[in-house]
Write a structure and sequence with these properties.
The chain is mostly beta strands.
């Protein structure tokens, strides 16, 4: 829960500085035992993402052009982004409602409005941050004050959820960041101290008194994370057995943290090496293995949902794969160029070096298309094929170079080496006699890279008429000597 700013630098609003976001290529969505597939099915083509937010019913992504994309369950129109919403600079997700902050300092909310959590107060302006709790919403204004609405505008400590979580303390000023839990709220002040209010029966509002160097905060349903200037964590809340699922038990050695998120009964952090870690309810399988995908790396933004997690990863460039293959003299070779991409992006190929001898052609169907006479040359075949034609009657080695492109990054060049080999070559040699009645037929063969079988034929004239059984001699390049005993001469 709370503010979702992706990888904006943690800079207090009053400094007048906001770092440009890092644009991610791919959004990952994954979760534990109870995650619905609707929440982990990322919309196709979702790229250029700068921030994500996750709730109980839905997920949000903020694109670099200021547009918001939502997916998940259609509960109370939680995924129905208001038409025309643009120039968004921050997003946040409650249980089943969302709020967005525009570049003009305006707040727009949508989704579940059972408690008025999407009823943005009239005249609210100059907003620099937004945060959504379970069923309440918060806004941080430029003057360092906080405004709340939705469930918890009163503080009766009733069973209906009214714990004052949407009613900030009257003397609260100098706030630099906000976050919302299920029934409580948290504010980080510009001096690094933290204030919490609302539901308190599981330690939600018991901020450690020695916490004076916070630079970021995040709130789960009943616990809070604070990131310190040392890039380490401080946690509190979820103090009773009913709510405690290990979400406040920081794993040993957890340091160099650059972003934090929390929701439900789990915690999520991003380290400076681009790796993501989580702990708490349903963050491990039955063998204790973390649910984080093994190939998730280069992450720049995170968000924890009630059961699911989101991560935005930078694009990793592809690799072009070198090849060595055999061809035959005076024959066309249909060559499939190959590459790999960590994100499984579609790849295009371009030729960067032509063979010193021989000719390359584009592919039209499965035959020669246009001749390729200069580089760089984009390979036009949809699956990346080209045709190589060696010089007439030439044997030997020929090579050319190509690169793979995923639409953002281009690989280093790779080389395709083609060995052109001739037909198998065989000769017969003078027969020899092993005794007075037995002759030995002699021969030699060079397979020249072809899988080759040989046999002897003999007779009284050029039609021969007799032959030995065929013998496989492999596909090597060395001369092999053969003999066949011929008794009864």
């Amino acid at each position: 829960m709370g503010l979702a700013l992706g990888m904006f630098l943690v800079v207090p609003w009053f400094q007048g500085v906001l770092a440009a976001p890092i644009v991610g290529k791919k959004v990952w969505a994954y979760g534990g035992h109870y995650t619905y597939s609707l929440l982990t099915n990322v919309p196709a083509g979702l790229t250029n993402v700068v921030a994500v937010a996750a709730g109980s019913c839905h997920n949000l992504a903020l694109r670099s052009n200021g547009a918001v994309v939502a997916w998940g369950e259609e509960y109370s129109e939680s995924t129905n982004v208001p038409p025309g919403l643009g120039n968004v600079i921050a997003i946040t997700a409650g249980d089943c409602h969302s709020c967005a902050l525009t570049g003009e300092g305006r707040v727009v909310c949508w989704g579940d409005n059972s408690y008025g959590q999407t009823n943005v107060p009239t005249g609210l302006s100059n907003v620099v941050a937004v945060a959504a709790g379970g069923q309440h919403s918060l806004a941080l204004r430029k003057d360092g004050t906080v405004v709340g609405w939705g469930l918890g505008v009163t503080n009766c400590s009733c069973s209906n959820g009214e714990y004052g979580q949407a009613n900030p303390p009257a003397n609260l000023t100098g706030v630099a960041a906000i976050a919302g839990g299920a029934y409580f709220s948290v504010a980080m002040k510009s001096n690094g101290t933290v204030v919490a209010w609302g539901y308190y029966r599981s330690g939600e509002t018991e901020v450690p008194p020695n916490l004076t160097n916070a630079i970021a905060i995040a709130a789960g349903d009943h616990h809070t994370l604070a990131l310190t200037t040392q890039r380490t964590l401080v946690t509190w809340g979820a103090a009773d057995s009913f709510y405690n699922r290990g979400q406040t038990n920081i794993p040993a050695g957890m340091s160099n943290i650059v972003a934090i998120s929390a929701r439900g009964a789990h915690s999520l952090v991003l380290r400076s090496d681009g790796r993501v870690f989580s702990w708490g309810l349903d963050q491990q399988d039955y063998l204790g293995v973390q649910y984080t995908p093994k190939n998730l790396s280069n992450v720049v933004a995170i968000a924890a949902g009630s059961d699911q997690n989101l991560a935005v990863a930078l694009n990793t460039g592809p690799d072009a794969l070198p090849q060595q293959l055999n061809s035959h003299d005076n024959s066309d070779s249909l060559i499939q160029l190959r590459g790999t991409d960590p994100e499984n992006d579609s790849l295009n190929f371009s030729l960067t070096g032509l063979p010193a001898q021989g000719t390359l052609y584009q592919v039209a169907g499965d035959t020669r298309g246009a001749m390729i006479t200069s580089v760089p040359a984009l390979v036009t075949d949809p699956v990346g094929r080209v045709i190589f034609v060696p010089p007439t009657n030439a044997l030997g080695y020929f090579s050319f170079q190509f690169v793979a492109d995923d639409g953002q990054y281009r690989s280093a060049p790779a080389t395709v080496e083609v060995r052109v080999i001739g037909a198998p070559f065989a000769i017969t040699r003078r027969p020899t006699f092993t005794d007075v009645t037995t002759a030995q037929l002699n021969g030699a063969v060079t397979p020249n890279g072809h899988s080759t079988a040989v046999w002897f034929e003999w007779g009284l004239d050029s039609s021969f008429g007799s032959r030995s059984a065929a013998t496989a001699v492999g596909a090597g390049r060395a001369v092999q000597f053969l003999q066949f005993p011929f008794p009864g001469v």
